[in-house]
Amino acid sequence: MMAEVLLFHHVLGKTKGIEAFAQQLRDAGHIVHVPDLFDGRTFSSLEEGLGFVKEIGFGEVTARGIQAADDLSQDVVYAGFSLGVPAAQQLAQTREGSKGAMFFHACLPTSEFESPWPADLPVQIHAMNEDPFFVEDGDIDAARELVKSAKHAELFLYEGKEHLFTDSSIPSYDADATKLVIKRVLEFLA
Length: 190
Known about the structure:
Shape: globular
Mean pLDDT: 96
Number of strands: 6
Helix content: 25-40%
Radius of gyration: 15 Å
Distance between the termini: 6 Å
Strand content: 15-25%
Order of helices and strands: EHEHHEHEEHHEH
Largest sheet: 6 strands, parallel
Number of helices: 7
Strand order of the largest sheet: 2-1-3-4-5-6
């Protein structure tokens, strides 16, 4: 079974690590779209990336993500890494025909969007159990609420405190945890 995935990058941009993650899904037979929401810009630190996002606006980044779905069929799985989660979650939660959602390193309260989480829409959420962004910013609470409210929802917490641990091109990368993430993602998409 092949899935079509729309995958949104994090605050460092469309890095080699994001591409490598997408390629693993492609290698398993899935169609994966990775739009560049930063027009080719990448950053080496969260601070630089956040500075750029503040310049163009968080809303603009999400709007670019929403727009990227315009040319795709509706039966898509929406996925996002951290900053990419708002667009993925909004699309999954509000766009007719969504097939599923995968959120990495972030999760928003479902109340952020105009309609509730579709009861039958499957979702996976992946993060580290001591990631300060995920835990202290309330994402873990939003993730737990989503898991409670949806019929097919899983929250996977990995040992550690790294935020973007699934990106093989940056120092916070955790190869073992990412291998498990990929395994779980491929099972989800099957």
